[in-house]
Amino acid sequence: MFTFLGGIALLILGYFVYGRFVERNFQIEPNRTTPAEALRDNLDFVPMSKQKNAIIELLNIAGTGPIFGPIMGALYGPVAYLWIIIGCIFAGAVHDYMIGMISLRNNGAHLPELTGRYLGNIVKHVVNIFAMLLLLLVGTVFVMSPASLIKLILPAGVPLIGIVIAIFIYYLISTILPIDKALGKVYPWFGAILIISTAAIGLRLIMVDHASMPELSLATLQNFHPDKLAIFPGMFFTISCGALSGFHATQAPMVSRTMTNEREGRYTFYGMMIAEGVIAMIWLAASLTLFDGKTLSEMIASGTPSVVVNEVSYLLLGSIFGTLAIMGVIVLPLSSGLSAFRSLRAILADYLNIKQDTMKKILAITLPLYAISFVLTFVDFQVLWRYFNWANQVTAVISLLVSTRYLYLKSRNYLITLIPSLFMLLAVVVYILSEPIGFRMSLSTTTYIVGFIITALIFALYWISGKRQKAALSPDDPLLNDQRPINVQASKQEI
């Protein structure tokens, strides 16, 4: 119990101490006009309250990631606690804050546009492909995972395909509605269900099962995975949401378009990532406490981690409250799946230069995306999850490199994003070298050395291009002074 409670305490302390340091390093401007005010279009750019923005951000970034990831990460043993705590404070929350705030300073631009601005157009096209692939995979995974959970609490005769179709219909309707109607009205209720159900599981663990809760110690600081899968890079891909996730970089710009003051950034971006870390800690602790590695592995292999969610909920809370807890888990992928498709629509529309100002144009982008996703639902979930994991962490690396370049050009402390970006860059290189979805090299010393060399070469190119870019800037360059929001009146005329 001490590891569990101590870890949560460290996460909260990280928000107040390191989060404030990151905010000061960014140098917020509370009086600056935000895109929500300057570019208001009553669809994506709509001013909303701090609390609504925060709960939307939390539900957007969470999905089943901070639940399914820690459940599968529990196979590695208590060492997984370390990645959630350290990763969340020093990597994930910094990642979310920086991309959200850089987007806020650039008219609510999405990650591909930010990449083109700070890393060049060639990288922008690569990021466009990665971001769209990631969001398509996220949307599909977050159709299948809630569908499998819903099926568990419905009568046995209800077909899975029917639930999948119903979720797609809900997504379609919500994707084309204005953001304050699609998300602003519903998400506070979703958030309440999530918070109450997660807190109930955490309290139940502390009050009843704390004696059997595994602690992190020198004796348990080892790899307990039943299949002996290597901790590096495996654990850092298994647990992404709750520690560091590139998917968040596709969601933060959506909320940057609805914020009205830069003071909200630390609470909305950094703070909600810390909240996701707490959710991940609770589900990791529950999985470690209630099941041994072999049992947990067999349950996951029998379908998806939703089987574990079902067992944890009923074992800890009983049939009635357990069902409510499952509903709390269901709202996460439903909300993240919806926001994934909404972001995908916006990114693809920007890339194709199709302004989303009529229903015909919105549907022209949206319907084909849902059709492709529906086809992907017939692919094995575990295969989808592997591709999602890699694309997700590649996106995180790119986001951190964009953030590093932003800070470097402004002569601020860029190590806060450079260090986690290099660590995860090495992880994604080793992962693609060794995994079945990549080059299938055995995970040996040679593979790690090759991965280190490739990482060093990529970093060298990145660093040289950054020095050249900074040397070519004039003092009044927009990259140094940030792109000012477009005049409100001009925006109205465009719309």
From TrEMBL:
Gene Ontology BP, a term: cellular response to starvation
Pfam families, per database record: CstA (PF02554)
UniProt entry tagged with the keyword NADP: no
Residue span, CstA N-terminal domain: 6-165
Keywords: Cell membrane, Membrane, Transmembrane, Transmembrane helix
Spans through the membrane: 80-104, 125-146, 152-174, 186-208, 228-247, 267-286, 314-341, 362-384, 390-408, 415-434, 446-464
UniProt subcellular location: Cell membrane
CC per GO annotation: plasma membrane
Domain of life: Bacteria
Membrane topology: Multi-pass membrane protein
Keyword check for Membrane: yes
Coiled coil regions, renumbered to chain: none
Protein family (similarity comment): Belongs to the peptide transporter carbon starvation (CstA) (TC 2.A.114) family.
Protein name per the record: Carbon starvation protein A
Source organism (scientific name): Aerococcus sanguinicola
